[in-house]
Amino acid sequence: MTEQVLAPSSELLTRFPEVVTADTRKSYEGYLVDRARLVEVATYARDQLGYDYLSSVTGVDYMPDGLMEVVYHLYKTTGGPGLVLKTQTPRENAEVPSLVSVYPGADFQERETWDLLGIRFEGHPDLRRILLWEGFDGYPLRKDWKEAYYEEDGKPFKSRWPDAHVHRAEDKNPYQKNNSYPAGFNPETYTPEGDAALYASLNRTKAVYEAKAGDMDSDLIVVNMGPQHPSTHGVFRFVVALDGETIVGLKPVVGYLHRNHEKIGERNTFLMNMPYTDRLDYLSSLSNNFGYALAVEKLMGIKPPERAEYLRVIMAEFTRISNHLFAIGSFLNDLGAMFTPMLYALVERELILDIFEAVTGSRMMCNYFRFGGVARDLPEGIYEKMRELAFERLPKQIDEIDHFLSNNEIVRSRAQGVGILTPEQAIAFSAAGPMLRGSGVPYDVRRADPYSIYERFDFEVAVRYHGDVYDRFMIRIDEIRQSIRILQQALRDIPQGSIQEGKPQYQVRVPAGEAYGRVEGPKGELGFYVISNGKPNPWRYHVRAPSFINLTAYEMMCTGNKIADTVAILGSIDIVLGETDR
Amino acid sequence: MSDMKKENLNNTKYDIPPELQGQVSITTLDKIYNWGRKASVWPMMFGLACCAIEMICAAASRYDTARFGMEIMRPSPRQTDLMIVSGTVTKKMLPTIVRLYNQMPEPKYVLAMGACASGGGPFKEGYNVVSGVDKYLPVDVYIPGCPPTPQAMLHGMITLQRKIEAEHFPDSRWYSKGSLEAVPIPVLGPDIMDPRQFELIKEQSLARLAEQEENASQVDSVEQKA
Question: I need a labelling partner for A2 at 20 to 30 A (CA). Which of A22, A222, A257, A506 fits?
Answer without folding.
Answer: A22
